[in-house]
Design a protein that fits this description.
By secondary structure, this protein is α/β, with parallel strands linked by helices. It contains twelve helices and 21 strands. The protein binds ligand LLP.
């Protein structure tokens, strides 16, 4: 069965009777008029569909917890929707913990992860009852033990390890290879375990955590990841008589950004993971563990699109034609950061025949602010609305106020209804944190 991460567009996308692109029963041209552009639009049906496809795909295994990787895109409304779907949250900062808590997440289903958590963040996680902390390094073991002791609590932890698996994705988003800033090298695990057994009495080691990378298309590396973790569990059991019960496999499943991308389905990934557990738990003499899966991009990426309004254009004599839109690298830094490729369509005239090859440029003051290097579209005019697909993950969440441009709004659409989930910034928001020191007023 195909799953929604394999689709280029949100599951509700279609061309409506006005010959406009419609998402979640809402006409995108009307959304652009009502809320302004740039505008992030999130389709609730796609979010829930993918969340359910994950749950179905893993339902063949009895002990699974689904965590959403908040870093992909997090707002209180997203927390609410995914909590309703039974998800916990993978969080990497005090800000994400705060959003989960205030959005109504069940904190006991959540995990705090990251390679340099502050003492304040660790204390906050303990105080708010975050279910598991994935400890990344030796300093954190000491800090967390201390914080747990002060709070009078025993804290359940995982050890984040680097399993030594390389995946074929952009080098900035590979994380599981050996030369990585994240986690304990497998050769350091014994030292960490001995410290936990001998000194850190306020920590309860329950399992191992790994994440091999993002935008992954290969299914076999999930098989290998499970194998490495179960082998390590077997080794730990034999050496320390310690029965670890959990493995967290991270996220990483890819999505379809262009017609050429063919990501695997959620079922294919689940099948590799589950078969590896059955093969390797026996082989390494460990009990079948509870598994955590923490997808980000594949839950929210396809669910979100960005609407931009076309402005100026420039035909370079004997060169390319640039068409500029009212957003760019500040609301979606992925093209300039990772050479990410997107697919755009003309929301107000999607049936027109693509007739010219253009470069879609952003509005920010850098030559590198190009959203799409080359795409064939109908002739674009000022005021046209472009719909960029698959911008839901790591777009808004990595946005900035570069050039002091206001961050866009985000709306949630469903059954013809649209609701703001993030307000558009105003100039007052933009300058709210600025302070002019008194002495400059003299
Ligand atoms: N778990 C851990 C420990 C992670 O580090 C990540 C992502 C995930 C889960 C979720 O991975 P996903 O399912 O979204 O692939 N900004 C980059 C992606 C960075 C991913 C960082 N870690 C991008 O825009 O492509």
């Amino acid at each position: 069965m195909n799953t929604a991460n394999q689709s280029l567009k949100p599951v509700t996308a279609k061309i409506n009777e006005n010959s406009h692109i419609e998402i979640g029963g809402c006409d995108t041209v009307e959304l652009a008029e009502k809320y302004g552009t740039p505008l992030y639009v999130f389709d609730e049906t796609t979010i829930r569909t993918i969340a359910r496809q994950y749950k179905d795909a893993f339902s063949k295994y009895p002990k699974v917890s689904m965590l959403y990787a908040s870093k992909a895109f997090m707002t209180k409304a997203v927390v609410r929707i995914l909590s309703q779907e039974g998800f916990g949250f993978d969080m990497v900062s005090g800000g994400e913990i705060y959003t989960a808590k205030t959005g109504g997440a069940d904190m006991s289903k959540c995990l705090f992860n990251g390679n340099n958590k502050s003492i304040e963040e660790l204390e906050m996680a303990i105080e708010l009852g975050v279910g598991l902390i994935s400890v990344d390094n030796f300093l954190e073991l000491a800090l967390l033990d201390n914080a747990a002791k002060s709070a009078g609590k025993k804290v359940d932890i995982l050890l984040r390890v680097t399993p030594g698996i390389e995946c074929h994705t952009h080098e900035y988003i590979q994380t599981g290879h050996l030369d990585s800033k994240f986690g304990f090298d497998l050769t350091q695990v014994d030292e960490a375990i001995e410290l936990i057994i001998d000194e850190y009495k306020n920590l309860n080691l329950t399992g191992l955590h790994a994440h091999i990378g993002s935008q992954i298309f290969e299914t076999s590396i999930y098989y290998d990841e499970v194998k490495v973790l179960l082998k390590e569990m077997g080794r730990i059991k034999a050496k320390y008589k310690l029965n670890l019960t959990h493995i967290n496999l991270g996220g990483g499943l890819g999505i379809k950004y262009t017609e050429n991308d063919c990501p695997p389905s959620i079922d294919e990934i689940a099948q590799k993971i589950i078969s590896s557990i059955y093969d390797n738990a026996k082989k390494y003499n460990v009990d079948e563990p509870e598994i955590h899966i923490e997808p980000g991009r594949s839950i929210i990426g396809t669910s979100g699109v960005t609407l931009y309004t076309v402005g100026s254009s420039k035909q370079v004599p004997k060169g390319r034609k640039y068409v500029a839109v009212d957003g760019g690298m500040a609301d979606n830094p992925r093209p300039s950061l990772y050479q990410a490729v997107y697919t755009a369509e003309l929301a107000n005239r999607p049936n027109d025949i693509p007739s010219e090859t253009v470069t879609i440029a952003g509005r920010f003051c850098e030559s590198g602010d190009i959203l799409i290097k080359e795409t064939k579209l109908p002739e674009l005019k000022e005021g046209d609305i472009l719909c960029f697909y698959d911008t839901g993950a790591y777009g808004y969440s990595m946005s900035s106020n570069y050039n002091r441009v206001l961050r866009p709004a985000a709306v949630l659409v469903n059954n013809g209804q649209s609701d703001i989930i993030i307000n558009r910034e105003t100039y007052e928001h933009l300058t709210a944190m600025d302070v002019i020191p008194e002495r400059l007023s003299k």
